[in-house]
Amino acid sequence: MSSSTQKNDSNDMEETYWNSAAGQKWVDFQHEMDSLLATVKDQLLTKTNIQKGEKILDVGCGTGATTRDSALLSGASGSVIGVDISALLLDCAKQVDVDPNAGSIDYLLADAQTHGFAEESLDVLLSRFGVMFFSDPVIAFANMARALKPGGRLHFVSWSYMNENPWFQIPRDVAIDQLGSVAPSDPHAPGPMAFADLERVSGILRDAGLQDVTATNEKIDLFYQGTLDAATYLACNVGPVMRVVKELGGKPEDVRAISEEIAERMQNFVVPGGLSIPASLNFYSACKE
Ligand SMILES: C[S@@+](CC[C@H](N)C(=O)[O-])C[C@H]1O[C@@H](n2cnc3c(N)ncnc32)[C@H](O)[C@@H]1O
């Protein structure tokens, strides 16, 4: 952690999670995840409409796909800070080449909920799937908003509900069918689907002091470039399967059975060159007065 970070134990579980085997999976499958989520990145960056010279914070930047593209859009006079709580993912991000025409990039290992960012130093806060893991989202957004200049803006994308996102729903259902139910969890607890409720999240942004909040649900298709077997392997490694297997003590033969059934249920998504998987996403925006 950076020395200017005020330590708040409340995100310790997420810090542990993203620095453990689960975070390592995002590193191991970096190219496949970036390819699968490329359409999401492009939609987010279109909405963010980055201008040359802008100063940007990419929140929960992971292995840095959105950081690098934001730096290119902001040009040589712009700059991007990619902040993440995972040293594993940031180390991976730092090793990826950056376009010579891009603005400067700094990767910062810190908890975005509590880090002391320079006040009124940024034009844009953005995130692809990196803001749903805060123990206290109001405190987190208020903290990050302090770093925005007056008139600065926020754009991020999160997942909508599980039952609208087969990329999560199928592997989770199959793992539970194989191993039994996991304990029910609070739908608003930190996690990939925590920001599914547009009204609730809009309230969080307003409570954090942001203005002109917009929240829209959009249906898009994720494209997995590769075979059904490779997509199934990815789904067994990144996402809910490993969580369920770990929690319920699944054995290698369970994972094999889960994998076969996921492939069966994802068969419908196969198209020439890969898989086209429907997704339901929430895009949020807001401004600082
Ligand atoms: C689902 S991944 C998304 C990564 C990246 N934005 C992408 O789209 O590839 C969520 C990321 O948020 C990071 N994260 C979770 N809680 C965080 C926090 N409190 N502060 C900073 N980063 C956090 C995780 O380490 C992880 O890299």
UniProtKB/TrEMBL annotation:
GO-annotated molecular function: methyltransferase activity
InterPro entries: Methyltransf_11, SAM-dependent_MTases_sf
Domain Methyltransferase type: 57-155
Listed GO biological process terms: methylation
Superkingdom classification of source: Bacteria
Ranges that cross the membrane: none
Stored CDD domains: AdoMet_MTases
Keywords assigned: Methyltransferase, Transferase
Protein name, UniProt field: Class I SAM-dependent methyltransferase
